[in-house]
Structures are given as structure tokens and as C-alpha cells.
Amino acid sequence: MIECKTISKKFGAFQALENVSFSIPSKKCYGFLGQNGAGKTTVLRMLVGLLRPDQGEIFVAGHSLLTERQQVQRLCGYLPQRPEFYPWLSGEEFLRFSAELVGVPARQSKKTAGKYLDIVGLADFARRRVGKYSGGMQQRLGLAAALIGDPPVLLLDEPVSALDPQGRDSMFSLLKKLKQEKTIFLSSHILHDIEQVCDGVVIIHKGQIKAQGTMPELLKQSGESIVRAQVHFEVDGRLINQLQAEFSGAMQGIGIPVSNVAWQEQGLEQLFYKVVKQAEEEQHQNSSTGQGGAGDGNMAR
Amino acid sequence: MAIWLAKEAREMVRLGRWIPLVAVYLFLGVLQPITFKLMPLILSSASNLPEGTVIHIPPPTVDQVLYSIIGQYNQLGILALILVGMGLIAGERKLVGEWLWSKPVNIAHYVLAKFSVFFAVAALSSLVGLGIGAYYTAELIGPVNWSALCQGALLYVLYQAFLISVILLASALVTSPTLAGGIALISIVLVNLLLPMIWQGHFVSGLLELIQATLSQTAWSRSSPFWEPIVTTLLGTTVLIGLQIPLLAGRKTSH
Asked: Global pTM?
């Protein structure tokens, strides 16, 4: 459904993307995982025609973005990372405008707007001006605007970043329903978010694709190198110690020394990055000494 | 196109953008005839002249008063136009550009709707201002030739269309409304100052002369035909509006 072929992009001297290639199958939900600044937003903005790649090609449902941009834009609903809309319109007016923009007839736009406001849980705030919406409400309104017109592809740039835990849960429930009939590509730097809803993942690091595939494929590819750790969000010191012990053992088991890792972090996120960083350093050391890296192709979670 | 017109009209009303236009044009329209009528009184009461000094100011003609309204429109009126128009495209791109440009937007409809709504409000304000100014002129100064006034007013509205196309082009060039305002102001000042020097009687400068000739009911004295400034200003306006379409289409994918 979505196919990126060797796309590269430079901003001045900064190489933002380098030979990025991946494909997302139809009616699947894929996560786009990477640290802040890895190039996720750049790729998503390219997919909706907001940026032109310096080289490479992008196809959505067989349409080339370079030659059929409007056609591709009709197929994609896009939620920007920091959604900002006309503050002087009410939520309902904004969605009616969005609906008419993608071809919904004016006499049906009110009904359509009402339907999508209901879907994202903003029906009670339909007449409130968008300028008075909170960040989370704007994000939900943005999702409604992306959904309107029923596009087969949804491109969501960090769709839960401004939501509270309850909002995140309802967003993920909605995405789980939507993925039955739509191709969804959502970016996040939080593995846990991706894991909740996605069938597969594309991992980007410093503008380069590091891994891609379905979750089972990636697990199979990396085999014994997978490090599994079950972490709860609310952990006490005892659990941290237990985690540290289990994790250290697992890391040592696959040949990654953990002596230099400080284990004070309570978040899975920080832990994840520490492990990836450690694996990268290890890989770098091994390649400079001519050894095969223990972290090659690893996915730590 | 209809959705864009509706959205622009709503934006004009909700953000109160029409207020400076209506206020400035109406104020200038009313002010000029009253100022001309009361000028001797104002001068004698405001200055410390020796006792017995007699100030003799020849009474203004009707066309002088009416053209002075156009003159004021050309100063404060232009500033009001820039104030309202500088953010119309630049501000929108800055605020919602990422969402908006990801949609299959018809740029021609977008640009035409921006121009149409802005022009309609500006033209209506200036026409009403001129009408009120002419009424007071007729009451305070002397009889007005309404036919000549209507022709002059329509020519001024054409000039306004040109100004608006310059302002919108500046607003399409950059994403900072303030910078767009600066570019528009400099461009209009250059057009108003340089064109009469290098291209007198033609294009926009010719149009302003034609307005003056129409209001004073004097014959068009230039060698070029009277319709030439009208046609060239119309063409210039069309070109400036047309330029915004490829410019914004390019900006959609490169910002």
C-alpha cells in the first residue's frame, strides 16, 4: 500500500534521510519507531506531499507521489505532530470544512462532522471554538479531520503525544478498530505505544532504516538476541532491582557487558535507549577490532 | 470554490478584519469635506496670529474635495489594506499550513477566494466611504456630479484590486505576516513613487491620473488612450493573482 524506495533528503548540509526504503502492506498498522530527530516526521511529511525527496520514489496504492500528488493526498488522512487548526472555528465547523475539502457535499457535511466528533469523543464540545480546545482535544480533533472522507491510508505523527492515559487507551482502541479496514502508519518514539496496536514496525535511526517487518518476523530474524523484560509503569525500588538483575543476566547472556550502564531509570523508554546505545557501542568496538557484533541486528525491548 | 468563499467570509467576520477597513474608509470619507469646510475656522482658532490678520483661503472645488478623499485613501487606506491583508496567506500557512497543504487543496480556488472576499470588503468600504464623503461634500461645499463620482469610484476600486493583489502576493511569499506587510508596503510605495516618474500616464500611475480627470470632468490629456491604464491595471492585477498559484503550489512541497 505504501512503498518508499531509496528516498534521501538533505536540509543544507544535514543529511536527514539516507536511502530510506520500506513498504507497508494494505490494511495493516505499522509503527514508525525512532528517537526524536531520527527522521520520522520528515518521512511522514514526504508521504503526504509536504516535502519532496531529493532522490527516490514514493508510491501510495500504486500512485507515484511525484506525479500524482493530489491523488495520493486524497488517499491519505494525515495527523501532524503538533496539530493546529483555525482557532476561530468551532470543532463542528472545522470538521465540516475538512469534509467539504475532501469532497463531502455541503448538505452532508454536518452529519459527517457529527459522526466523526462522536468517534473521537468530542461530540459534547462540537460548538466550542477550536482555540479553546486543550492539546489533547486538538489531537483528537486532528484525528477526526484525518479520518474524514474515509481515506484508506492514515498517517499519524505521534498521535498520542498530548493525550492523558485514558485518552491514549481510547485512541489505541480506536486504532485497533480502524486497522481492520485501513492502512495505518503511526510514528512514535515509545516502543510500548507501537507494541499496543501495531502489526509491524519500521525502525529508523539517524535517517537510516535499521529494521522493518512484522513483530513475529523481527523476533524471528533476531532470534536469541532478543531481550525480553516485563516492566510495569509504576515500579518500586524492589522491582527495579529485580529488573536490573534479570536484565543484566540476559545482556551478559548474549555477550553485551552491562557494567557501565546505570540502572536508576524507572522508565522502559530510557532503559530501551540505554540498551540500544550499549549495543551500538559494543557493535562499534567489535567492528573496529574486526569481530562480529553481538548486537548486530538486535532489537532490544 | 464555495467552501473557500464561505470560510474566508467567516474568517473576515470572526476575526474582525472588516472593522479597520470600514472604519478607516468611512472616517476618511466623512473627514475630508468637513475638514475643507472648517479649515478657515480651524486655522484662525488654532494659530497665534496677530490681531486683525485676515486669512483668505479660496473655497475648495467639489472635485478637489472628492479627489482629496482618494488621496487619503491612498495613504491611510493603503495602510489599512496592508494591516488586514498581510496575514491572510502568510498567517494561515504559519498556523495550519502543515494540515492544510496535506489536503488536496485547489490552489486557484484558494487564492481567488482570498482575493474575492478581501476585495469585496475593501471595495464596499471605500465605495460607502466615498458615497458618504460625496453626500457631505454636496451638503457643505457644492453640488456633486454623481455620474462622474460613480465612474471615478469604479476606477478607484480597480486600483484597490491592484493593491490587494500586491499585498496578497507579498503574503504568499513569506510565512511571517509582519515581513509580508513590509514587502507589500515597500512594493506599493515603489509603484506609487517610481511609476509616475518612469511611466507617466500609463498603468497604475495613469489610472490615478484618470481618476482625477474623471472626478474633475476634464479631458484625458495623455497621448495614450484613456482605456490603456484601465486595461494594463486589470492585466497587472490578473498577473499578480495568477503568480500566487504556482508560488503557493511550490511552497506546499518545500516548506
From this structure: 0.80
